[in-house]
Structure formats: structure tokens, C-alpha cells
Amino acid sequence: MKLLYANDQPGEHAPSWYAATSSIAALPSLETHLQTEVCIVGAGFTGLAAALELRSQGIECVVLEAHRVGWGASGRNGGQLGTGFNMDQQELEALLGQSMAHSLWDISEQAKRWILENTKRHNIDIDYQPGIVYAQHRKRFLAPLHNYCSHLKQHYGYEDMSPLGADDIRAHVNGQGYFGGAVDRGAGHIHPLKLCHGLAKAAMENGATILEKSEVLQIHRRPGSQMQRVVTATGSVLCERVVVATNGYVDALDERMHKRMMPINNFIVVTEPLGELAEELLPENEAVADSRFVVNYYRRVAGDRILFGGGENYSYRFPQHIAPLVRKAMLGVFPSLGDTRVDYAWGGTLAITRNRLPFIGEISPQRYAAGGYSGHGVALACIYGKALADHMAGNSELFDVLSQLPNTAFPGGVRSRPALLAMAMTGYSWLDKW
């Protein structure tokens, strides 16, 4: 069973609030044989950023998308444009050393700037709102987080992250079960599908070809040639280089990447309009992510609706009824929403790596891949796409740093790994109760 078809209607966006509030004209499918310099597989953040950057450097490219632009995690996620990687700077320093940790910090800051600068340059409205609150559900988590705010200020010159005590956090999150936290005003939240559509439009205006409903079935190298052929059911693309930018949907396309990245499903609901209650619950219109192992993340959208994400599973299939799963988590934070109608509910598939650090590399001669953003893909996926494009244009500064990150395969075979992961994640989730 391919994840591409396990849970969704072929060629149709998920029934999300994002899809209901953004639109882009359908693009044609590949129905012929093309030739180009670079073929990109996947029209999410990574692939679209790579296409835009390639064209800005005069390199021809074709993007093939199995469904629709932004169809996967890029167009379904929580919309949090966060700071850094999944592993914090102190952890990176311990694992990789001071110099590498600082290089990664600089890249993560560049990632946020890349999005905001390109949305301004190409006139893309992504509904940007500043601020992410990190809410702590255990008192013992407060001191380390507050120390981390000081660490970022002292060692990285980052003054946008401020500690919040028990009284302070209520001015940001009027929910229950939090003992304090921190607010990052250098981060923010966006409409991710609008970003996908805007990047696609900008790339096409700069000469990129993007084709939808064009699932890649095979990639092979011509005997005795440096050229590669990317094959769909109705056509093919002959190219010099290939970028595999499918992230959580890599399972059927490249076994080497499948070993490094594990798909995980996550679920989101959006409430009916709440009027003044929405502002009472989230007065500063910031996004929130809490400290649970299975993270609750939420924010206001359209002014007075609450978008709430929570719950994971580790099988290919989404649960039959998504809304009750997420509602349970939502009411744990906002019990006043008990009678609130859910207008939208959807699931999506992201990818994690074993150590939660993304992968980028040349997986075979002139064939590149990136993914495994582990919940930080809104910012990182775009800068990883730029890193791939820059590398192919002869500037490997970003690529050389990011490709040094350690990344090992998950244990077990392809069939057994989901079961092993499910057992491990279930065990970790019990930590939320302690």
C-alpha cells in the first residue's frame, strides 16, 4: 500500500481549512517526453524552493507532483514558522560542537528570513503573524527552558525569546494545565498552503515547469549515459540531475531514503467561528506548542477560529474519525470549547529521522534527496531546497554544512519498523502523564 493513496482522494487536497481558504488553478499532467537539466520529484516546500532557486540561477527544471501543489505535509501542517531545529542548541553543542551548532543556528535563522523575504519579493500573502509560545505542562520543565532563553541571548545574541512565569503565560494562553513557558517573538505562524501556491506561481513565472497528477514510478540511468530518466504512467523526463523531495511519501520511490525517514501521521481540526472567545483564549494571536511528548499545537486562524493539532499514529491508515481524537486533546487545554462545532478535520503525514535531524545528500550519482524535518519543516524544508539548488549551481556552502549532520537508518526491516516505532512512541507518550 502506497502512502500516496492510503488516506486521501487521488489528485484532491485534504478537506482542510487551508484548502478551503486558498486556491490555485489546476496544472496539467505530464503527457509527453521532456528534457531538462534538473527534475524535481515533489511539489512541497523543498521541491518548490529548489525550483525557485534553480531558476533564479538560470538552471532549467521540471517539477513532478503526484497529486496537487502542496498536497502533502507542506500544505497540511500546523503553520508554525519556528526557530531552530528539532534538537535545541545546547543539545547540538553537546552532539556536534560549538562551531557546528553555531553554523546550524545561522542556517535556521536564514531559513525564516528566506521565507519572509521571498513572500515580500514575490507578493505572496501567507497571513503571517509573529510569535510562538512554548507552554510547559510540568513545573520541572520551566527552569531548563528559562535557562535556555538566557543561553540563546548570551551565546547567540538572540533576544527574541523571553521566559514566561505562571502569571505571565495566562496573558498569552488562557488555557489550563500550564505552569509557564517562553515566547519567541522571532518566530511566527503562517498559512502554509498559500506559501506553497505562492512559491509555485513565482517559480513558474521564472520559467519552471510544474506538472500535477504525475506520479513518478521509476527513476533510472540510461546505460552508458550520465542522463537519468524519470518515468510516470504517461510520460518521462530526461535530465542530468534528480531531486527527490517527497519527504514522508518516499516509501515506494527510494529504499535508501525509506530506511532513514519514518512517516508519522498527525491530525488537525479547525473550530467554527468563536467570536470574542477566540481572543479570550489566545489574546496575543500567537501560535502555541506545548511540552508534551505528543505535542499539542494550536493558534487562531481567520481571526476567531481555533486551529488545534494533536494526536499521532504510526500506521499507514488515518483513524476513521479524526475530529474526536483531536477534540479530546483540545478540551484538555480549553474545556470551554466542549460544545464547539468542528468545521474541518484532516490528517497528514510528516517524516522523522532517528535523531530528529533532517537528511540531505547525494544518494546516488547526480541524484539528491532531502527530508525528515521532524516537525520543523515549515522553515527548514525551504532552506534545504535552497541548499540543493545552490549546490547544483556550484555553491555548496549550505549543502556542505547540512550534509554533515549524522543520520542513521532506523532498526529493523521496512515492514517491521512501523511496529517497533509504535511501541517506542507509545512508551514515550506515557511520559506526558508524569
Layout: helices, strands, pairs:
Elements: H1 3-6, H2 17-20, E1 33-41, H3 45-56, E2 61-64, E3 80-81, H4 89-96, H5 98-121, E4 129-135, H6 142-156, E5 161-164, H7 166-169, E6 181-189, H8 192-205, E7 209-211, E8 218-221, E9 228-231, E10 236-244, H9 255-260, E11 261-271, H10 276-281, E12 287-290, E13 297-301, E14 305-313, H11 322-333, E15 342-353, E16 359-364, E17 367-371, H12 377-392, H13 397-402, H14 417-429
Parallel strand pairs: 1-2, 1-10, 2-7, 4-12, 10-17
Antiparallel strand pairs: 3-6, 4-6, 5-6, 8-9, 9-10, 11-14, 11-15, 12-13, 13-14, 16-17
Structure description:
The protein is built from 14 helices and 17 strands. It is α/β, with parallel strands linked by helices and 434 residues long. It has a domain at 3-77 and 193-262 and 355-426: FAD/NAD(P)-binding domain. The strands form 2 sheets. Strands 3, 4, 5, 6, 11, 12, 13, 14 and 15 form a 9-stranded mixed β-sheet that branches. The two termini are 37 Å apart. The model has no long low-confidence stretch (mean pLDDT 93).
Mean of residue pLDDT?
93
The termini sit apart by 37 Å
Gross morphology is globular
Q: Which band does the percent of strand residues land in? A: 15-25%
Q: Please count the beta strands (DSSP E, at least 2 residues each).
A: 17
- Flag low-confidence runs: none
Largest sheet: 9 strands, mixed
Number of helices: 14
CATH class type of the domain at 3-77 and 193-262 and 355-426: Alpha Beta
- The structure class reads alpha/beta
Here the CATH topology of the domain at 3-77 and 193-262 and 355-426 equals FAD/NAD(P)-binding domain
Task: Look at the structure and name the CATH superfamily of the domain at 3-77 and 193-262 and 355-426.
Answer: FAD/NAD(P)-binding domain
Specify Rg, calculated over alpha carbons: 21 Å
